[in-house]
Model the fold of this input.
Amino acid sequence: MTEHETNNALQNALALALVEHPRASLQELACAVGVSKATLYRFCPTRESLLERLQSSSLNAYKSAIKDANLDTAEPREGVRKLLENCYKNKELTLFTIQHWQPELLENGECIIAQEKIDAFFLRGQQSGHFRVDISAAAITECFHGLFFAMIEAERLGRVPRARVLTIIELILMEGASTASSTPS
Done:
């Protein structure tokens, strides 16, 4: 494993440890992820610096997930699938961000730009007839985020099998929850 991969693995483990033990000290976190206190202190010398690093890494992972999904050119179903797969790679950081949410994160210019890229993807999908037009692209983006957040938390809690998480999100997002034969009353 390269140093970068080791750091990412440690970072994801720490993010999940903070989700499961939000008030843990650095010593308790080191124990939870199986590293020495010295190793953790070299990674982040204070709890505050750890929280900042994880928040920053979460935003960077989100931006990379969007960029690597090639949403500017991807076909709608493939774009959704790639975006889900890319976001899932760092699901622990997403869980951390949800639990340690701060409203000022929405004001981050990079976060806004990333969200606008997803909005634009869904708008193109609407224009090509792949997504409903009676729901705004921004609302579909929010549904994407909400489904992703809820399903990775459900997986963590053991309510949804890991192997089905991405498939369930894709099916609900692309086809809805109704059966093909159901009709509205």
